[in-house]
């Protein structure tokens, strides 16, 4: 964080930002190039790989049967887990999930859960006893900044790609039949992250910018342009003015991404 | 299992606990409650009962985590097993790990970390009873614990949530409103610097409602800020009185 190199870098980045420019040649409000590929893991019920610039994230979805939570007996279950795989960055260590991967998983989870992206009512097999459980596993393969947006987009893409096995219930037993149906979905949330450097907001911060930025602001939007999740991160702050500016910018960007993704 | 109430706001425009939409729960704050901590605070925010303690600046353990140009702030948010309806396992949950991180990041902008290079400060937060809005009450108490420990700060950090229940944007949701309601927006704020240091949201809000909720939460923060300063002053006034008696 505070190494000499990053401080020199910060000066360089700040100078460029004053001229509305960035180290990698983008404008302040530009995303990096997005490439998306779906269904590349045959053993998973759904999968997607995203390239956001050089940031690479693979998401696999597994669907299994399990028991519902006691307070929502008629709803299927969705869980998100994120792995910052050591091969993705020299700063990632093997071991149990640290606070960064837990925060990442919980931001992705919140966007999907709060937008009610998955129609969990349709995942109920036997109320209170048996439901489908959707495991969303985020696998970071290369870390070049903005893991949040890459992971959130890939997670939704993987869910869109997910096929549920056809089944019938006989004497309380679930029997898998031939064929598949798509995972029932009601919404496709889009997550946008902004960084704040030198009191300027910029879209889709990449690694060099992440290392020097004061704070970030993440917002997820549904089809109607409503906000369904927010998270501020980093040891900095935002003024009220910056929050309302950020909200507008994020909303615009989300609409733009939605068009690009065709969701 | 309690039944979910159908209406969270009655015909008179009052909430389940009788509050108006923009009304805070009663807040009681006490500073300097733990003898062994360098700084401490206790807050009762509605039915939330939370203790916070700060230790430091002290030598960093493990040493390799210390930084050559600043102090390292560490934070643990933890809920007691008996603090909620169903016993919570004492092992830190994913939620607690995330909250520890966002609370640390919301306190850090208030502290002059550059004054104490190579040292560390630990902030421990124990939720003894939870009733919605624990992260906000925790922040309010934790910031006071830091101040009570004598750590130089730019401002106190104070936090409060707003949200949406039924069709109304309301201040300071308690547990049932949080669970049954539409959205919750916790905000932490440094009033003297006009800086928002924590902002989260779950649920669904239009951009207009979101802006309204953030503003309402900040108004709530300002009210709690007065209580916070009062609590800090009270501790030192008491010390002053005790010394007079001794003389």
Textual characterization of the structure:
The complex is a heterodimer of chains A (about 260) and B (about 250). Chain A is α+β, with helices and mostly antiparallel strands. In chain A, about 30% of the residues lie in helices and about 35% in strands. In chain A, strands 1, 2, 3, 4, 5 and 6 form a 6-stranded mixed sheet that branches. A 4-stranded antiparallel sheet of chain A has the order 10-9-11-12, with helices on both faces. A two-stranded antiparallel ribbon of chain A has the order 7-8. The longest helix of chain A is centred in the last third of the chain and has 22 residues, at about 240-260. The radius of gyration of chain A is 20 Å and the shape is elongated. Chain B is α+β, with helices and mostly antiparallel strands. Chain B has a single domain, classed as Ribosomal Protein S5, domain 2 (2-Layer Sandwich). Chain B has helices at about 95-105, 135-150, 175-180, 205-245, and strands spanning about 25-30, 40-45, 50-60, 70-80, 120-130, 160-165, 170, 185-190, 195-205. In chain B, the strands form 2 sheets. Chain B has a 5-stranded mixed sheet with strand order 1-2-3-5-4. Chain B has a 4-stranded antiparallel sheet with strand order 7-6-8-9. In chain B, α2 packs parallel to α4 (about 205-245). Chain B is globular and about 55 Å long. The model of chain B has no long low-confidence stretch (mean pLDDT about 95). At the A-B interface, α2, β11, β12 and α5 of A face α1, β9 and α4 of B. β12 (about 225-235) of chain A pairs antiparallel with β9 (about 195-205) of chain B, so a sheet runs across the interface.
């Amino acid at each position: 964080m505070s190494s000499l190199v990053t401080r020199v870098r910060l000066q360089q980045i700040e100078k460029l930002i004053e001229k509305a420019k960035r180290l990698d040649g983008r404008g302040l409000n530009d995303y990096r190039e997005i490439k998306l590929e779906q269904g590349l893991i045959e053993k998973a019920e759904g999968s997607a790989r995203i390239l956001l610039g050089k940031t690479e994230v693979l998401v696999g979805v597994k669907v299994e049967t399990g028991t519902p939570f006691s307070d929502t007996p008629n709803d299927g279950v969705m869980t998100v887990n994120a792995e910052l795989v050591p091969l993705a960055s020299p700063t990632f260590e093997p071991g149990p999930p640290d606070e960064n991967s837990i925060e990442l998983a919980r931001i992705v989870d919140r966007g999907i859960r709060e937008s009610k992206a998955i129609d969990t009512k349709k995942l109920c097999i036997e109320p209170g006893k048996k439901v489908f459980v959707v495991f969303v596993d985020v696998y970071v393969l290369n870390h070049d900044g903005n893991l949040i947006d890459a992971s959130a987009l890939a997670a939704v893409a993987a869910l869109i790609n997910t096929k549920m096995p056809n089944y019938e219930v006989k004497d309380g037993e679930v029997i898998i039949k031939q064929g598949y149906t798509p995972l029932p979905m009601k919404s496709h949330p889009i997550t946008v992250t902004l960084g704040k450097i030198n009191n300027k907001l910029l879209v889709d911060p990449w690694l060099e910018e992440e290392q020097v930025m004061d704070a970030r602001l993440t917002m997820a939007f549904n089809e109607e342009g409503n906000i369904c999740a927010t998270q501020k991160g980093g040891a900095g702050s935002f003024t009220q003015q910056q929050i309302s500016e950020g909200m507008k910018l994020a909303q615009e960007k989300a609409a733009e991404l939605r068009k690009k993704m065709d969701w | 299992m309690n039944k979910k109430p159908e209406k969270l706001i009655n015909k008179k425009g009052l909430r389940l606990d009788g509050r108006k939409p923009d009304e805070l729960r009663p807040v009681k704050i006490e500073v300097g409650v733990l003898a062994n901590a360098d700084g401490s605070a206790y807050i009762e925010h509605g039915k939330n009962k939370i203790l916070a303690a700060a230790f430091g600046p002290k030598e960093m353990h493990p040493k390799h985590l210390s930084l050559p140009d600043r102090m390292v702030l560490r934070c643990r948010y933890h809920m007691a097993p008996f603090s909620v309806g169903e016993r919570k396992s004492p092992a830190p949950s994913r939620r607690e790990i995330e909250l520890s991180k966002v609370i640390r990041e919301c306190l850090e902008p208030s502290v002059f970390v550059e004054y104490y290079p190579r040292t560390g400060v630990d902030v421990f937060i124990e939720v003894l009873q939870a009733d919605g809005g624990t992260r906000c009450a925790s922040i309010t108490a934790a910031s006071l614990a830091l101040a009570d420990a004598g750590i130089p700060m730019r401002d106190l950090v104070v936090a409060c949530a707003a949200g949406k229940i039924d069709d109304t944007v309301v201040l300071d949701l308690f547990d049932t409103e949080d669970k049954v309601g539409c959205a919750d927006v916790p905000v932490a704020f440094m009033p003297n610097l006009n800086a928002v240091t924590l902002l989260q949201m779950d649920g669904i809000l239009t951009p207009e409602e979101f802006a309204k909720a953030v503003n309402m939460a900040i108004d709530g923060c300002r009210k709690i800020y007065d209580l916070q300063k009062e609590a800090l002053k009270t501790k030192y006034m008491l010390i002053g009185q005790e010394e007079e008696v001794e003389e």
